[in-house]
Write a structure and sequence with these properties.
Layout (H helix, E strand, L loop, with lengths): L2 H6 L4 E2 L9 E6 L10 H6 L4 E6 L16 H12 L7 E6 L1 H15 L7 E4 L17 H11 L3 H4 L2 H19 L13 E6 L7 H5 L9 E6 L5 H4 L1 H11 L7
Parallel strand pairs: 2-3, 2-4, 4-5, 5-6, 6-7
Antiparallel strand pairs: 1-3
Helix pairs in contact: 3-4
Length: about 250
């Protein structure tokens, strides 16, 4: 089965722009409440040597009829199974927020299967060994909306009842899976890790992001960008320059 046909039958992987000339694939995992198209700009702006494959979680957009994953470990199992056929090229992982923890767990699973990532980008999330004790009522819409507002979500979206009716169930399902996550002490990936953090991110401070160094047996790097939780949007060109440079392919277009 060729690559294009394979993606057509795979509900998990979105290949926005096939790049048969690519030297490396970048598996991208979105944040809680997010979806694969969040990474469409990555597929357009990274150097031609990178082919972007974005993961689509169940419970949203074209997968809205499917149940949400019960926990991140189950979700990581399914993602690792789905992306493994695409590891015939060298590959790296980029996860933002909830996606950073998932990228870490997926990397562990792929390494156990003999598929070795070149690099793991952990963006906008505390290291797994640095959890915060937070009281959060998942049934309280006001608290979910307040959290979105604090993270930097567009206020116009938060004022639209139809948009909220779409966003909140997805966010609630993802938060439920995230809040149940427990790091398995001592687990470390063998690939290098690069942590990316925003200066004004209310969900993670720079020290919490730097603690990702504990989760690899290889090299560790840290990149800090001005911005809130979604610095990956506000500082996209700078973020993609870092990604391209760290992959050895130069910066973004």
């Amino acid at each position: 089965m060729n690559q294009t046909a394979r993606v057509g039958t795979d509900t998990w992987v979105r290949r926005f722009e096939p790049r048969p000339e690519a030297d490396i694939r970048l598996f991208c995992l979105p944040h809680a409440g997010g979806s694969a198209p969040f990474f469409y700009p990555f597929s357009q702006q990274l150097p031609r040597g990178v082919e972007v494959l974005a993961v689509q979680y169940p419970g949203r957009q074209d997968r809205r009829g499917e149940p949400f994953a019960p926990d991140l470990h189950t979700l990581a199992d399914d993602i690792a199974e789905s992306v493994q056929p695409w590891t015939d090229l060298p590959f790296a992982l980029f996860g933002h927020s909830m996606g950073a923890v998932l990228a870490f767990e997926v990397a562990l699973r792929l390494e156990a299967r003999g598929a070795e990532p070149r690099l793991l980008f952990a963006s906008g999330h505390r290291a797994p060994s640095r959890p915060r004790s937070e009281a959060f009522d998942l049934d309280d819409d006001r608290q979910l909306i307040a959290d979105l507002r604090q993270a930097g979500t567009d206020p116009q979206l938060l004022g639209d009842p139809e948009v909220l009716a779409t966003i909140l169930p997805v966010l609630r399902g993802d938060y439920r899976a995230s809040l149940s996550y427990r790091y398995r002490e001592g687990q470390r990936v063998r690939c290098p890790v690069v942590a990316l953090a925003g200066t004004d991110d209310p969900h993670v401070d720079v020290d919490e992001a730097a603690a990702w160094a504990r989760h690899t047996t290889a090299d560790f790097g840290m990149e800090v960008f001005r911005g809130d939780h979604f610095f990956v949007n506000a500082q996209r060109a700078a973020v993609l320059d870092v990604v391209g440079s760290r992959l050895g392919l130069g910066g973004a277009f």
